[in-house]
Amino acid sequence: MIYDLLIVGSGSAGVAAALEASQQGAQVAVIESNVLGGTCVNVGCVPSKALLWEAEALHQAGHHPFAGIHTQALGVDLGALQGAHRDLIEGLRRAKYQEVLEAAGVPWIKGRARFIDEATLDVEGEILKAEHYILAPGAAPAIPQIPGLAESRPWTYVEALAIPSIPRRLVVLGGGAVGLELAQAYARLGARVSVLEAASRLLLAEDPELTELLREILEAEGLEIRTGIQVERVEPGEEIRVVTNQGSWEAEAILVATGRLPRTAGLGLEAAGVERGPRGELRVDPSLRTSNPRIFAAGDAAGLPQYVYVAAASGRVAARNALGAQELLDLRGVPRVTFTTPSLASVGLREEEARRSDPNIRVARLSLHEVPRAITQREERGLFKLVVDQEGVVLGLSILAPGAGEALQEAILAVKYGLNYRDLIETFHPYLTLAEGIRLVAQALDTDVKRLSCCA
Length: 456
Known about the structure:
Blueprint lengths: L1 E7 L3 H12 L4 E5 L5 H6 L1 H19 L14 H27 L3 E3 L2 E5 L2 E4 L2 E10 L3 E3 L15 H4 L8 E5 L3 H12 L3 E5 L11 H13 L3 E3 L4 E5 L4 E5 L2 E5 L1 E4 L3 E3 L6 H4 L22 E3 L10 H15 L13 E3 L4 E6 L2 H7 L4 E6 L4 H6 L5 E6 L5 E8 L2 H4 L1 H9 L3 H6 L9 H8 L13
Parallel strand pairs: 1-2, 1-6, 2-3, 6-16, 8-9, 8-14, 9-10
Antiparallel strand pairs: 4-5, 5-6, 7-15, 11-12, 12-13, 17-18, 18-21, 19-20, 20-21
Helix pairs in contact: 1-4, 1-9, 3-6
């Protein structure tokens, strides 16, 4: 049997591709060597956000801002927490991956796939052929080559999200989204946490003004955050010692959050004539076709922004193109969210990026002190920042606030479709929602919002 399409990988990219191909009547199958679902549902988005919200519930029980309300944080039942995570992951894996593939009539072939020539796969000794292929193997944690690190048995997000223990002292290597999210979660669960970042600031993809404010908030909560750190070596032992250019730190556990690398080894890419880039990513053209015209790639392994929603979109485009379409992946308006509390959400250009191409851009800032929802909720730590061009077209928006990601969607549409900031002002925004801050920051380009009444 020759399939119309064989897909390697069952994460969001692979399953989205399979569903798209099935809807078009193609004979398609998914090949997976591990469990269904890829990173997001098993060891990424789902368990990480569950852990963050669990830790926040514990924190709020002892630190909420409301006068006259008395609550108490009684601690953590680690076994119950681990069991809840297993049930959550297994339920979503079954409902959102296994059952949807079954309903679409897409078979799942269990095994490790390897090309043996430009048009043939070997899956654990079974030879499979297809008219076209999509590679969506995802990415895995990157472990830096630091003397002694491997011997110290470091955690990555995979181990950290299994919640093996709550260490008394935890060192986190990396101040990106994963590092900060897990650092705050473990700190709220009872660990003393130190975040060590090699760069001069946190979250390099985000606006420095907001990342500095986030750093201040996290430090006020008790996290130690150090930037400009170069780890020289790690000394294993019952107490692990991390030696750096700025001193040393002792810890019971080390969490490595220094990025992810494409999982492309062992696929027989040389036999298939598929080229890779310097980080092992699959080289693709704008249609997601690799250097082998029969083979497409999607998701984290294709060198795309590593977000589950980008992976799914790329899987759909790759499937349509493999079946004869000629589409390009549209990456306008890709949002970014760091799910700390407060969270940092953004879309489009940062101020510094926009100024490099146009020194005459306009920028507005709005403190949460001016947002009625934040005032009423007693949570005024944060900032909105809007960037527009000389004609007022929205170039980018960043929000630092509790639930910032929930308020960002309007700005995503504005960036993708080239809306003017006056469109934001003239759009109705429900009172006492965080999204109202988008209207207010747009008004701040022309008006002192401190002189506006509610909803004015």
